C-alpha cells in the first residue's frame, strides 16, 4: 500500500495525540511529584511515635525518669517498688511487685470524654504460675471491677503463651471482655512486647493487638447497654488491682492479682480508634527507638 504525503501527516498527528493521552492517563489528577527527601528517616510516614494521632493523645506516660502523666502533669499519689531502666524509647518503668497509684479523676477519662479509645504500651513480662497481672486499670473506688481492667493472665506456667484478657464495665452495669484464645506474641523478661487495645463505642468492636497484629478472639462485644462506660468517680492504677494496695482492698473479693513484676514503657491513651496502619506504625517506630 502506498501512502500519500497527506496520509503520513495524518498518521503522525494521531500518533502524537495518543502519546499525549497516555501521559495524561498516567497522572489523571495532575498530582505533584513526590519529594523523596521528605520521607528520609521516617517509618510508615512518621518521624516518631509523637506524630501518630497527636491531636487525639489524651494521656501519656513516657517514664523518662518520671512517673508523671505528662498531658496533665499528674504525679502518682503513691508508688511501690518502682524504678527506671532503659526502655524501648528512652527510659521505662520497672516494677518489682510494684505499682503507681493515682488517686484522682483524670479529665480525659471521664464519662463524656472517653467513648472510644486506643491504649498503646510496651511491656516486659513473664508468667508467674499463680497470679494475674493488672497492667493498668481505670478503677472505681470501692469496686472490685474497674471501668476498664487491662488484665494479663500471668497465672499460667506457659513459657510460650501470654494470655491477654482485658474487660470493661458496660453502660448497663454488666461486663464485656476479649481474649487471645489462639495467638500469642513473643514475650519474656528481656523481650519488649507491644500491646494495644482499641474500642469503638459505635460498633462495639473491642480489639486486642500485639506486635502489630490483631490477636483477639472475641472482638464484637455488642452495642446498646453493652457499650463501654467510663464511670465516675474513677482513679488510675498502673501495675496493680485495688487489692494490691494497702488500705484500698475490697472486702470479701477474690485475690486474683499480684502487684506487677515487669516493665512498662510508652503508655499512651487516645480518645479515638487508631487505624490499623497507625497501630502497626507505633510498633515499627518503637522497634526503631522512635
Automatic annotation (TrEMBL):
Transmembrane spans: none
Protein's UniProt keywords contain Kinase: no
Record protein name field: LamG domain-containing protein
PROSITE patterns, per database record: PROKAR_LIPOPROTEIN
Keyword Signal on entry: yes
Keywords carried by this UniProt record: Signal
Signal sequence, start to end: 1-23
Amino acid at each position: 500500500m502506498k501512502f500519500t504525503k497527506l496520509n503520513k501527516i495524518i498518521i503522525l498527528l494521531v500518533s502524537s495525540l495518543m502519546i499525549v493521552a497516555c501521559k495524561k492517563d498516567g497522572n489523571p489528577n495532575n498530582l505533584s511529584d513526590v519529594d523523596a527527601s521528605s520521607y528520609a528517616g521516617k517509618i510508615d510516614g512518621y518521624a516518631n511515635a509523637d506524630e501518630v494521632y497527636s491531636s487525639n493523645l489524651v494521656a501519656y506516660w513516657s517514664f523518662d525518669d518520671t512517673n508523671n502523666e505528662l498531658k496533665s502533669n499528674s504525679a502518682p499519689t503513691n508508688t511501690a517498688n518502682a524504678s527506671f531502666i532503659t526502655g524501648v524509647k528512652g527510659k521505662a518503668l520497672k516494677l518489682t511487685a510494684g505499682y503507681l497509684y493515682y488517686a484522682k479523676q483524670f479529665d480525659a477519662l471521664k464519662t463524656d470524654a472517653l467513648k472510644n479509645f486506643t491504649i498503646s504500651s510496651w511491656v516486659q513480662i513473664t508468667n508467674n504460675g499463680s497470679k494475674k497481672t493488672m497492667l493498668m486499670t481505670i478503677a472505681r473506688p470501692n469496686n472490685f471491677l474497674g471501668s476498664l481492667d487491662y488484665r494479663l493472665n500471668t497465672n499460667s506456667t506457659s513459657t510460650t503463651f501470654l494470655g491477654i484478657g482485658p474487660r470493661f464495665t458496660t453502660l448497663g452495669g454488666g461486663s464485656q471482655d476479649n481474649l487471645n484464645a489462639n495467638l500469642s506474641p513473643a514475650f519474656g523478661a528481656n523481650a519488649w512486647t507491644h500491646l494495644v487495645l482499641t474500642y469503638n463505642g459505635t460498633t462495639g468492636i473491642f480489639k486486642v493487638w500485639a506486635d502489630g497484629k490483631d490477636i483477639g478472639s472475641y472482638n464484637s462485644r455488642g452495642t446498646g447497654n453493652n457499650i463501654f462506660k467510663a464511670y465516675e468517680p474513677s482513679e488510675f492504677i498502673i501495675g496493680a488491682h485495688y487489692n494490691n494496695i494497702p488500705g484500698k482492698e475490697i472486702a470479701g473479693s477474690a485475690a486474683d492479682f499480684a502487684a506487677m513484676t515487669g516493665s512498662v514503657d510508652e503508655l499512651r491513651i487516645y480518645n479515638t480508634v487508631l487505624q490499623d496502619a497507625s497501630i502497626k506504625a507505633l510498633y515499627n517506630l518503637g522497634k526503631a527507638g522512635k
